Amino acid sequence: MSNLRILILDDEQLVRDELEEFLIDPNFNIFKAGSPSEAFTIMDKYEIHIAIIDINLPEMSGLDVLEKVKHDFPEIEVIMISGYSEMDSVIHSMRLGASDFFTKPFRLRDVENAIERTKKFVHLKKNLVEVKRNYSIISEEFYKAMGYEIIGDSPQMKNLINLIGKVAKTDNTSVLITGESGTGKELVARAIHYLSSRKENYFYAVNCSAIPESLFESEFFGHTKGAFTGASDSKVGWFEAANKGTLFLDEIGDMQLNLQTKFLRVLEDRKIMKVGSNVEIPFDTRIIAATNQNIDGLHSEKGFRLDLYHRISSFIIHLEPLRNRKEDIPLLLDYFVKYFNRVMGKNINEIDGAVIRRLVAYEFPGNVRELKNMVERAVIICDANRLSLSHFQLTHPKEEARKINFSTDENLDLELVEMDCIKKALERSNNNKSRAADLLNITWQSLDRRIKKYKIEV
């Protein structure tokens, strides 16, 4: 920050000079005024950071000056000068927005302490303005790049925007995004890509839980024509396709352990070799990974290689579930209603207060995705211009999951219990895999793999 500009407003020349003498400092620029009109002229001309104002002034009282300063120059912090008999006025001035005060006759220590305390207000306000400005700029750039906004006014969302903006400026830093299903991990990954210098190149999203071992090398590294039976043409792998761009690895925690070793070697060498070829191809791809697993469980000895975890997690971003930032729910609700109004040609312009209260009280196990689906359904059903509770389904999946109980005499073999649980979830969801996955609190892809593993007919 440049030199602190301090304005002294007092009708006594001696007081002004004495304060100026007290405040001699290479980091301060001092301005002096003997009347309010002279002070306001200085404020119009210069960016003043701190104004020291006497309560007793000609033309208008110091309290009136304070009120006008806070109205016309809200960025200026004010320190009031008072006499011992004017404490009621001091209390009133603090209510009007004064940051501090000191009394006459004043001591150098009193003045220094008041200035030091007020400097902290100035710096905090400057930082807050900077954060808001960055939030606005990043949100605007994100909207231009992707066609929709990042919605939220909670501290968690503002911090998220700040982190996205910072890591997007780095070109090669690997990012690990953690958070429950439905929190928007791919959205954040795309935001990082489109706000980075790689935005003109490809963003390639891969679901790691859906890659069978037999196709791993072919999909990631590509293959040459005739490399294996059925390889009638050469194929570009995902690393090569995303060269100079970003490769997003969703649900990386589900990657099989033996495949992690191959993946780690490629990340370390930054080279790939197509199946059926002995030519190494260098690549320049940023890796962004995501998982809905607990971060400690991700690199446990059974679940994930520790060296691969460190390779992909240079910068970690955690997305808070919607239940932990409930102040964002009304904003998201309003946004989704307007969005589906446009998509469906509806004109819903009112929402019952009971809807907002109920949604804020709801836990949202499916997070923002669940809210969006709820609103989409409600808008489809609603034939009027007002949404009410009757348009929403708010059954809590975890409450349904609790109904899946086992009697004490059942087999406790883990695989048998898991298979039975999956069958019951599918039965309760009428074989809807997405709904069953929600009941089991796992991803759709994880459920699908288990269905194939246990050869469950759906």
Automatic annotation (TrEMBL):
Keyword Cell inner membrane attached: no
Species annotation: Labilibaculum filiforme
Ribosomal protein recorded as keyword: no
Response regulatory domain segment(s): 5-119
Pfam families from the UniProt entry: AAA_lid_14 (PF25601), HTH_8 (PF02954), Response_reg (PF00072), Sigma54_activat (PF00158)
GO molecular function: ATP binding; sequence-specific DNA binding
PANTHER family named in the record: TRANSCRIPTIONAL REGULATORY PROTEIN
CDD domains documented for this protein: AAA
Keywords in alphabetical order: ATP-binding, DNA-binding, Nucleotide-binding, Phosphoprotein, Transcription, Transcription regulation
Any one GO biological process: regulation of DNA-templated transcription
Phylogenetic lineage: Bacteria, Pseudomonadati, Bacteroidota, Bacteroidia, Marinilabiliales
Name of the protein: DNA-binding response regulator
Modification type 4-aspartylphosphate: residues: D54
Every Sigma-54 factor interaction domain range: 150-380
